[in-house]
Design a protein that fits this description.
single chain; mainly alpha
């Protein structure tokens, strides 16, 4: 049986208003499905929009 592989990407937020605003929004919106799943869903939607434009 092969081991599952995963890619990890670290996202950092600096102590600037814009970064903190984004971080707080992601934290609030991701409470149900988790941060990773939420960010992946946003990126998937952006990719689909990009393909259709």
């Amino acid at each position: 049986m092969k081991k599952k592989q995963s890619l990890r990407v670290q996202i950092s937020f600096k102590e600037k208003f814009d970064d903190l605003e984004i971080y707080n929004w992601v934290e609030e919106k991701s409470k149900i499905i988790g941060v990773s799943a939420f960010i992946k869903s946003i990126l998937k939607e952006a990719m689909e929009n990009d393909k259709n434009s």
